[in-house]
Amino acid sequence: MSVHLSAEPGQIAETVLLPGDPLRARHIAETFFENPVQHNTVRGMLGYTGTYKGQRVSVQGTGMGIPSAMIYVSELIRDYGCRKLIRVGTCGSYQEGVHVRDLVLAQAACTDSNINNVRFGPRNFAPIADFGLLLRAYQIAQERGFTTHVGNVMSTDSFYQDDPRGFRDWASFGVLAAEMEAAGLYTLAAQHGVRALTVLTVSDHLVTREETTAEERQQTFNQMIEVALDAALGG
Ligand SMILES: O=P(O)(O)O[C@H]1O[C@H](CO)[C@@H](O)[C@H]1O
Ligand SMILES: O=c1cc[nH]c(=O)[nH]1
């Protein structure tokens, strides 16, 4: 047991998928895992462990935002020995050419969070994905014909921005989309010497204001989860 997870030692696999939404964790376990067993219900942050194509894998909800996600990621690494952590989330596109339902692989993550200012002071740390996981995920997505973009994302602490056009500064430097956790995940992975990747589905568009329906989101979420599972488990 850790402070926020009730799993027994050894009950969580070395490879863990990390959706923000705990109900997406349940959907992943019920749809993709063989013999899923629930390993956490503390705070309603559902977690499950099972197998995928015969290999042991877990999924754990993280909640929204870097502070919540870093609690779960820290405990998974330190208390349960997890070594491969793949976030599977939604994002809002900053770029006209990155459409709703497309996949985004976060090669790196900018942030407006203070987490790394506290650590590094005036020096900047660049939170990046594990290259092997990133390459494998890209290859799998290409093989399956999923429209996929690779690049920088913005891990913001503020879903609702005071200036709704403020994202354009980031967009002009090529940042692809906004989400809220990748920079925290990548920073912890670097600190602990483990592997991490963030795979996202574009759920809405900050330029065109387009949104996906719940049904469409379900379908493209499944593409993202297939890519994440096969990249992590070598399928
Ligand atoms: O769909 P998830 O994984 O929760 O990710 C995105 O959605 C939430 C905001 O609605 C934030 O957590 C953001 O990162
Ligand atoms: O964090 C997020 C997730 C989806 N869409 C956004 O605009 N932001």
From TrEMBL:
InterPro entries: DeoD-type, Nucleoside_phosphorylase_d, Nucleoside_phosphorylase_sf
Keywords, in A-Z order: Glycosyltransferase, Transferase
EC number: 2.4.2.3
Top EC class of this enzyme: transferase
Ranges for domain Nucleoside phosphorylase: 16-228
SUPFAM superfamilies (alphabetical): Purine and uridine phosphorylases (SSF53167)
Reactions catalysed according to its record: uridine + phosphate = alpha-D-ribose 1-phosphate + uracil
HAMAP family membership: Pur_nucleosid_phosp
Identification of the protein by name: Uridine phosphorylase
